[in-house]
Amino acid sequence: MNMNYQKLFPLFLLLLPLCLQAEPDDLLRSSGLVPQTEVLSPEDKHTPPLDEQATPLPDINGILTLEDCIKIALSNSPKAVSAQIAAEEAQISVNLAKGEFLPTLTAGASQGYNVTKADTLPTSDHGSSQLYAQAQLAISGITDKVRSVKIRNLELEQAKLNLTNTTNDISRTIKKYYYALLSAKRAVAIRTQSRDLYQDQYERAAEYYRLGLRPKVDVTTAEVNLNNEDLRLIRAKNLVKTASANLANAMGITTSNTLNITEIADIAPFETPFNVAVEIAYANRPDVQSAQTNLKISQIKVNQAKAGFFPTFSFSAGFSKSGEDFYLDNEQTKLMASVEIPIFSAFKTYNGYKQAKLSFQKTLNNNRSLLNDVFLEVQSAYIKMQEAAESIPIAELNVEKAKENLDLSRGRYNEGIGDIIELKDAEVAYTDAELSLVTARYDYASAVADLKQAMGTN
């Protein structure tokens, strides 16, 4: 048996069991085409979830701040994950476009063995071995490839802007439901306080009736008022559960418990003038920046279509070494530069150029429309913010006057001058005034968040 065959036979015996035992997925993973699957230990399965910075997420059963809720939402939102994947894909597209300017390197080896048998000829065997290494660089349409890299970079910028815009949208949604839950919880506190007032009123009316100072109808009316306030308190508590469920759903979590969130600090007055707010929106909003980037892409495509009227330059180079018996004895070098001049393309170049120019004009008009929409959005949010800001001092004054009127009505009732209807009206007015103040404050916080979202400074 030939020496070359003797070398191949043990190698074949070693590789055969591995090939028979390996599954297709194992072969793909070993080649790097499929990522390895991590096997979690029991300890890993009970670790808290991590965000994209690999830091533990806040416990939903603990006390949550607004920042905690936003952090959880960004980690759970499919929209945020999709936007992040799109940004990573855009980065890969940039790398692929740049790779067109890089050479390719390959190397290989082969070992063969042939055995020939014939009736009239003696048996012959022959072994051969080859080895080669080569490097190649081929660039066809250099200017087109340069423009392709520019377009891919701009598309990467757009993907990052879309990720920022998605993050801002999620943050705004969380703020909306967060403020709604705070408002609902504050309403429960006010209703509880009002219920205590009606309880005190009922006990006073019952005592006055026992002493013969008030009629039975006052006791009955006070009891009805107390029962009605109990119903309002039940509805207020249910609104807290609903608001908590809405916030949990926006965060991408499921829980039967009411979320325990912290109160926000007083919102500082928004003092930015309207015209400045509009300018900030034009400069900072991700969708405006993405539209401007899209306009740049359209301009590059116009230039690319126009380049079809001009010659195309190409360049290629190659170097290789090869040989038999694993010796690199042969060497080959290739260099080539070419130019291709367009003469007639059945008007494809001309029509393609016209189409690119029309697409550019369409993109330009879309940008103008977007700026108009941004102006209107900022204007609407600014008006809403001003309305909420102007409502707060009036609501505070109403609470003060309603409390004063309640004290006077209670005093008149205790002195036997006023009746229970007057007292009830005063209690209702005071409760409504407190609820209106809570609504005004959280409406202002929500309006400021809307305005910052419209300005792109969320």
Let me know the number of strands.
6
- Share in helix: 55-70%
In the CATH scheme, the class of the largest domain would be: Mainly Alpha
- Could you describe the largest sheet, including whether it forms a barrel? 4 strands, antiparallel
Please state the structural category: alpha+beta
Distance N to C terminus: 79 Å
CATH A-level architecture of the largest domain: Up-down Bundle
Indicate the multimeric state. single chain
Q: What is the CA-based Rg, rounded? A: 38 Å
State the strand order across the main sheet: 2-3-5-6
**How many DSSP helices?**
11
Order of helices and strands: HHHEHHEEHHEHHEEHH
Which fold name corresponds to the CATH topology of the largest domain? Outer membrane efflux proteins (OEP)
CATH homologous superfamily of the largest domain, by name?
Outer membrane efflux proteins (OEP)
Count of discrete structural domains: 2
The amount of beta strand, in percent, is: 5-15%
Shape: elongated
- Unreliable stretches (pLDDT < 50, length at least 5) are 1-50
Compute the average pLDDT.
82
Protein model, in words:
The chain has 458 residues and is an alpha+beta fold. 66% of the residues lie in helices and 13% in strands. The protein has two domains: 40 residues, no CATH class; 363 residues, Outer membrane efflux proteins (OEP). It is built from eleven helices and six strands. A four-stranded antiparallel sheet has the order 2-3-5-6. A two-stranded parallel ribbon has the order 1-4. β2 and β3 form a beta hairpin. α6 runs antiparallel to α7 and α10 runs antiparallel to α11. It is elongated. The termini are far apart. The N terminus is likely disordered.
